[in-house]
Each structure stands twice: as structure tokens, then as C-alpha cells.
Specification:
By secondary structure, the protein is α/β, with parallel strands linked by helices. It has nine helices and seven strands, in the order ααααβαβαβαβαβαββ. It has two domains: 36 residues; 196 residues, Rossmann fold (3-Layer(aba) Sandwich), CATH 3.40.50.150.
Amino acid sequence: MTKRRLTTAEVEYNEVRANVLSRVDAKYVADAPFVFANRITVTAALSRIELFKMVQDVPGAIIECGVYKGNSLMLYMQLSMILEPYAINRSIIGFDTFEGFASIDKDEDPTDINESMFSDTDETLIQDMIDANDLVRPVNRIPRCEIVKGDILQTVPEFVKTRPDLVVAMLILDTDLYSSTKVALETFLPYMPKGAIVVLDEVAYRNFPGETSALRDVLDMNKIELKRLPFDSSVGYFRI
Ligand SMILES: C[S@@+](CC[C@H](N)C(=O)[O-])C[C@H]1O[C@@H](n2cnc3c(N)ncnc32)[C@H](O)[C@@H]1O
């Protein structure tokens, strides 16, 4: 069972919201996103702001493995543009197939998932909004946010070969799956200085155990201080 069951009240909330959304256009929603955002979306935004603040004094890239529609990646880009506009050595880099789950491990990942999950996305929308934000930010000749399309099992090891300048300040692991989490950890950990943080979006979570088993297979759990945010139960993080 990988999907959280909704309560009757949540079903009713979703129906009311769908009705309200049917009365407005996309621009209205973009102009007043918190009118329509639910508790989970706002919690996710709040936890990303907390995490961003933890690495504001650590130089290097914020890397997100598992981007989906880009909500989290673009929030990190916004935070960087607002809170450190002249940080020319900060990159926000997102890795995803943009076609859904890939490299599902039959032993480590849930059996009731498939490759069509999370395929309802369009990376050209994300790229267009990265380009639009570039128009209005300072020092915009130096890229701040990039997306890398493809299976992380291939793209991540290839990427590090192209970036001799790479330092990773924050590694966000959010593919939900074992193999991609393992490859991302193995590849990026050598680039993370003391004080950098690793974030796992589904840690100690029984419905998606892959991120947790990859962490255990790559690192000695007794040697990391795994923490949670008090208000966001599924997110775990540790400092290098
Ligand atoms: C839970 S979603 C990410 C959500 C996103 N971080 C957010 O906060 O909105 C998981 C994503 O991981 C991606 N993914 C899963 N396996 C992958 C792989 N092997 N390579 C690249 N992307 C993968 C899926 O395409 C999906 O978009």
C-alpha cells in the first residue's frame, strides 16, 4: 500500500477545492497560491525554507534527486534569488527522468508501483520558468538553476565528470526509490564538505523503504546523527 488513505474530511476538502478551482483561471491561482494550497504543500514549503537556511553559509550546489513538477526545485531557486542574489557559486540542480519512476528495484522497492507513476509532468514548463526568472535576477549570465533529464543511475555519475568545480552543500534525495538514492549518495558524498546536509524525503517510511535501505547500505547508521523537522514527519536530514 503506497498511497495514503484520505479521511472523509480530506475527501470533502478536495471536493470543495476542486469546485473553487473550477471558478478561476491559472493566473488567479498563481497570484494567490496560498488560497488554494493545502496543509501538505505549505508544510513542504516551510520545511524547504528551514533546510535552505541550514546551508546558507555553506558554499556549493543544492542538488535535488527527484524533481517531479519542480515545485521544490523552483522554491530553492526563489530562496536563492531572494536571500543570496549575488551568490554566483550557488547552483540549484535537479535530476529527474521527467517521465516517472525508473530503475525500480524488485527487492527493495514496493511491489505495487510502476514506471508510469509521476510521469504527469513536463520539464519544458520548468525550464521556461527557470529562463523567465533568469531575466529578472542579478548576475544572470551565470546559471543558477539547471535540470538534468534521464535516469539518475546514468546521469549522476556522468554529471560529476563534467564539473570539476563541484561542491555539494545540500543533497536532497526524493526519488522514493532504492537504486537512484544509493547511486546519488555514493556519487555525491565525496563532494560534500563538513557542515553540508543530506535530506531524505521519505526516511523511516514503511510505504517507501528504498531511501532508508539505500542510506543503511551506503553509510553506517550509528555514525550519522539523523534528525527530523518537528512539523514535517517524513523528512529526515543529517549533517556531514
Ligand atoms: C516524489 S517525486 C519528487 C517530488 C519533488 N521532489 C517535490 O518535492 O515536488 C519522485 C520523482 O523521482 C523521479 N525518479 C524516480 N526514479 C528516478 C530515476 N531512477 N532517475 C531519475 N528520476 C527518478 C520520478 O520521475 C519523480 O518525479
